[in-house]
Design a protein that fits this description.
The strands form 2 sheets. Strands 1, 5, 6, 7, 8, 9, 10, 11 and 12 form a 9-stranded mixed beta sheet that branches. It is globular, with a radius of gyration of 22 Å. Helix 5 (about 100-105) crosses helix 11. It is about 35% helix and about 15% strand. It has a single domain (about 35-195, about 225-395), classed as Alkaline Phosphatase, subunit A, CATH 3.40.720. It has about 400 residues and is of the alpha/beta class.
Length: about 400
């Protein structure tokens, strides 16, 4: 029996020695012939979700600051931030001074912050906890990411360039059964990589017409799609200019969010974008390091949101930012904080219900020095996925209803 098209893709079938170089590009392609039909089955085909990973474990207590609580001041005699040092938020909470750009978004109702996000029996390992956030499956073995399962549910037969992952390698969060994410860090380097001796055969493959071999025709179609996607990505990002400031240009988050804006402005078909910004593991010298990191994050995020408004796409895009865990309540002896548990999750956009959501953890009722989570992070994921038009239960499993009042339908 002849192999099916999906079996060909999964096997990485190559022609004339292309197997070493072409399959990575094929994995970035998809089943273009089904795209139109799939779009007709979607509830909200115009909506786009952007997810930002803050890797390393951002200290939530010095980000959304409970400055009036005595337990906070006692636990952090050197690291505590006072009312005079922080920015207005609401009630008993103030915002880290590095987030001035986010404070402006918050004042306009474009930022929602969910207190105390986490999961039962938390793990303080970066690798393990991030895996749980990537898969939305704490304490379970799950090969697919929460965004990958979402894409599988939305586009069960695949879809052309539905998921873009900006990074050096594919994140487990976008790993799926049917989708082939586009993965790149630098658009200029998004190209075919492999044995140069296979280039001639590769070019011949793309130049040929149809054949009697469905498998070869499918491989050829995928290669052409990959080639075209490469050009679209490179052209869109190279040509994009904006008067909006994203902050200093060198942090990866600045570059990545501007590239996302470029692809959105160009009408690129992706519906899910994923990127990561690292450095938040502040075991020492936290005050200065976190200030810079949050400033980079805040300026880039505000620039992205303001740019979306400028190009008229702000009502179509929802952005969510998370970190794998917060930090310990008490400071350590190195002017930093160690791995902790519960942490805020952020949502940005014209469709968020701005403000503080959820219940702030009780600083007088700790779990061996850590915050007890008050909101299962999967409920926040569920609100974002539901807005996108996905069945949250299909991606997250039952028992985690989307957090209500967080995103407008």
């Amino acid at each position: 029996m002849s192999p099916t098209r999906r079996e060909v893709l999964r096997a990485g079938l190559g022609v004339a020695g292309l197997a070493a170089g072409v399959p990575p590009l094929f994995r970035r392609a998809a089943w273009a012939e089904t795209a139109a039909a799939l779009a007709g089955r979607e509830r909200h085909p115009e909506r786009i979700l952007v997810v930002v990973e803050l890797a390393g474990g951002n200290d939530g207590l010095n980000t959304v600051v409970p400055h009036r609580q005595d337990a906070y001041s006692r636990a952090r005699p050197s690291l505590r931030l006072t009312a005079d040092e922080t920015l207005p938020l609401e009630g008993d909470f103030r915002l880290h001074p590095g987030l001035a750009s986010v404070a402006a978004l918050y004042a306009r109702g474009r930022t929602a912050i969910v207190h105390g996000c986490g999961y039962a029996r938390p793990d303080r390992s970066h690798f393990t906890s991030m895996r749980y956030w990537h898969t939305a499956a704490p304490h379970r073995t799950e090969p697919l990411g929460f965004l990958g399962r979402t894409a599988d549910a939305l586009w069960p037969e695949g879809g052309e360039a539905r998921v873009v992952n900006l990074g050096q390698q594919e994140s487990p969060a976008v790993r799926s059964r049917h989708q082939a994410p586009i993965v790149f860090a630098d658009p200029a380097e998004y190209a075919r990589h492999g044995d140069p001796s296979a280039q001639e055969a590769y070019d011949q493959l793309l130049a040929q017409g149809g054949s009697r071999n469905d498998a070869v025709d499918f491989v050829r179609q995928l290669a052409r799609t990959a080639r075209d996607t490469q050009r679209q990505v490179q052209d869109a990002t190279a040509r994009y200019t904006s008067p909006v400031s994203y902050g200093v240009p060198f942090p990866t988050i600045t570059r990545d969010l501007k590239n996302v804006a470029a692809l959105l402005a160009a009408g690129f078909p992706a519906r899910v974008y994923y990127l990561s910004f690292s450095g938040f593991d502040t075991h020492a010298d936290q005050l200065g390091r976190q200030n810079l990191l949050l400033q980079y994050f805040g300026d880039a995020m505000a620039g992205f949101q303001n740019d979306l408004e400028r190009i008229g796409l702000d009502d179509r895009v929802l952005t969510m930012a998370f970190t794998e865990f917060g930090r310990r309540v008490a400071e350590n002896e190195s002017g930093g904080t160690d791995h902790g548990t519960a942490t805020p999750v952020w949502l940005f956009g014209a469709n968020v219900v701005g403000g503080l959501h959820g219940r702030f953890p009780d600083l007088e009722d700790l779990d061996d020095g850590d915050l007890r989570f008050t909101t299962d992070f999967r409920r926040v994921y569920g609100a974002a996925l539901q807005w996108l038009g996905a069945d949250a239960a299909a991606a997250l499993g039952p028992g985690h209803p989307p957090l209500g009042g967080l995103v407008r339908a």
